[in-house]
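User: I'll paste a sequence; please echo it back and then give the predicted structure.

Assistant: Echoing your sequence first, then the prediction.
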Amino acid sequence: MAENTPANGAATNGAAEAMAQLNLQKIYVKDVSFEVPNAPQVFQSQGQPNVELNLSQRVAQLGEGVFEVVLSVTVTCKLEESTAYLAEVHQAGIFGVAGFDPASQETVLATYCPNVLFPYVRQTVSDLVQAGGFPPLLLQPINFDAIYAEQVRRRNEAPAGAGQTLNS
């Protein structure tokens, strides 16, 4: 019954929380590209734009407890079959992560870090699109927790020996 006493649970949780540390060391644009392949004709086109969003992330360990997380977003806007614009942003951050068990560390890098980077990506994409002569594009919020949960579910259902990578 000792495991149900609040004092034991509080002491254990408090010690674990005190050891786990996460800090943001740097946020930067790693790469950015914007193309309007059919300018100036595209500005005379009529029709409903079709916007496609591709999202991915990459984590690289830079040192002991230091990781670079890169959130990559590619936005392709088409009018009929013609590409109106293509915007690509690789937003990066350097995060210090210490004191987490491996599963928690993976979760933090796959969910918390992209959530920190996403507002910067959203602003950069919006600025690029508007500077390209198009109405501003505001990317809708992304639920990185749900994306990660789905990736973990797929990984757990994969046959043994089948390699999978975690990309959003």
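Residues 1-12 have pLDDT under 50 and may be disordered. The first strand starts at residue 21 and ends at 35.
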